Amino acid sequence: TELPLSTIFGNASPAKRMQTYMKLAISVPWIRAAERVIGGLFASVDWHLEDGADEEIDDEYAVGMERDALALMENPQGALPIGHKLTRSAMWRLTCRHLGACGSAFWFKDQMNPFGQTKALLYVRPDRMTPNEDARGNLISWQLDKTPNDPGQTLELDEVVQFVFEPPDSGHFGIGLIESAL
């Protein structure tokens, strides 16, 4: 009784397909119900961070860089001066929702220093990302918010964390559950 998935895609771009997947994940009641259960479990999973010697990093851990990493994961947007800040569980839940529906999810490493440490993690919807490739089809960077009239902003590979649900057979976006349902 729902929208026949096979009729909605045609030759749509990856961004347009992902926009459709996200709309379906929210508007179709049974997909939304399943996503709530899965996303809720994913966002509330017990987790911990360990150093290279398998020692758990916690609030009493003495080394600064590792404690910074723990603080970043617990409060990924705490260093942002303005705007709506996502908590760890909200960011993980949003990541899980788009990862399952679209096959990919992205975090942007904001305020990264020359050593690769970041002060904040920003969530980026997967439909906003366009891969930049070399002549051989290798991913060399990402373009954020590229449109026919705007080149968008180039993001280097080390500035982006991409999560894929299932690795793609071709291209750079993962395969999500809605695409698999086709």
Low-confidence spans: none
What spatial form do the alpha-carbon principal axes imply?
Answer: globular
Distance between the termini: 15 Å
The number of helical elements comes to 5
- Helix and strand content put the structural class at alpha+beta
Describe the sheet with the most strands: 3 strands, antiparallel
> Average pLDDT value?
87
Number of strand segments: 8
Fraction of helical residues: 25-40%
Sequence of secondary-structure elements? HHEEHHEEEEEEH
Q: Work out the radius of gyration.
A: 18 Å
Side-by-side strand order of the widest sheet: 4-3-8
Secondary-structure map with pairings?
Elements: H1 14-27, H2 29-43, E1 49-50, E2 56-57, H3 64-74, H4 88-102, E3 104-110, E4 120-124, E5 129-133, E6 139-144, E7 153-156, E8 160-164, H5 177-181
Helix pairs in contact: 1-2, 1-4, 2-4
